[in-house]
Amino acid sequence: MGILADILVASEQDALAYDAQLELRRSPVSGVTVVYYKSFTGLEFGTLWALAVGEPFEVRRHKLRHISHGDDGERWLEAFPAELVAVLSAIPDADVPSLAARWAATDELKLSQMLPEHVEPVIRDLHRLAALAQAEGKGVYLWGSL
């Protein structure tokens, strides 16, 4: 099955409700915009952040903020820091192909056999979602599950 990686634009309260509704198999939370991916964790988004700002990757600096995790440890919710949301919303469209190539070349994505053409749509979605979150005064969250 692999890792599920839902990226949400939501308030923190709605992101927590999203996690709860999935655990209880209830209907979706209104007011949450979601895109669905597989094989991504906060680590991969941290490496993208470092690449986008031209810094060497540092776990302490380029990590998502932990919000919650399930009792079984098989699901988690993390917030994209405001700085990362600003970086993602400001990525010029013309820079996406080269950023995708550099991201796909990282050890984390090479292990998943990701190619630039696999991650370019992810970067474009992150750009769109970050801009939406800023416009709506919400956050960007990663809901993950094994």
Structure, briefly:
The protein has helices at 12-24, 42-53, 82-89, 96-104, 107-111, 116-136; strands at 4-10, 33-38, 65-69, 75-79, 139-145. The protein has 146 residues and is an alpha+beta fold. The longest helix is centred in the last third of the chain and has 21 residues, at 116-136.
Would you give an account of this structure?
There is one protein chain. The chain has a five-stranded antiparallel sheet with strand order 2-1-5-4-3. A hairpin with a 5-residue loop joins β3 and β4 (75-79). It has one domain (4-145): Hypothetical protein yfbM fold. The longest helix has 21 residues, at 116-136. It is globular, with a radius of gyration of 15 Å. With 146 residues, it is α+β, with helices and mostly antiparallel strands. It has helices spanning 12-24, 42-53, 82-89, 96-104, 107-111, 116-136, and strands at residues 4-10, 33-38, 65-69, 75-79, 139-145.
